[in-house]
Amino acid sequence: MKKLLLIFFIVNSFFLLAQEKEQSSTYTEILNCTDSSKKVTLYNRLAHNYFHDGLFERSIHFFKKGLSLATELKDTSLMIGFNLSLVDAYDNLGAKTLEFEASFNGLRLSELRKDQTNMARFYRVLGQAYCSQKDNVKSIEYYT
Question: Is 102 helix (H, G, I), strand (E, B) or coil?
């Protein structure tokens, strides 16, 4: 049993070191990148890595950086994607006000693009959020 635990910790340590190296490498790429389109992709990758590691505050930082750059590029598709990611990260932190803000921003952008798939996603998120706050009227409104 001790050998099994030791093997687990060794393998886990290597996995964590590999993740940290990837994150460090991606961050270095961001610092050296002059192409805004590539940089926004790198921000997204780095933010998702932190998100999957459970480091939601750090992921939010990089989702916001990506959103800011996507806004500069006027790429509404990327802006919608970053808002969806922010909704998930805020939800994991229990930051309901910020979750609502990202949801409404994403919904507004989705409506401008007439992107029914993402409109439905944001309506669902808002319906769930209002339901969790016991606001059944608003919840039903967004679910409908």
Answer: helix
CA separation (Å) from 28 to 13, 15, 37, 42, 140?
A: 22, 20, 16, 10, 46
Q: Which residue type sits at 124?
A: R
Nearest to 98 by CA among 144, 64, 54, 74: 64
* Cα 72 to Cα 38: distance, rounded to the nearest angstrom: 14
Q: How far apart are CA 95 and CA 78, in angstroms?
A: 22
- CA-nearest of 109, 108, 139, 110 to 125 is 139
Record the tokens describing residue 11, joined without a space: 């393998």
Per-residue pLDDT of 108-135, as tens digits, reads 999 999 999 999 999 999 999 999 999 9
Does this model's pTM top 0.85?
no
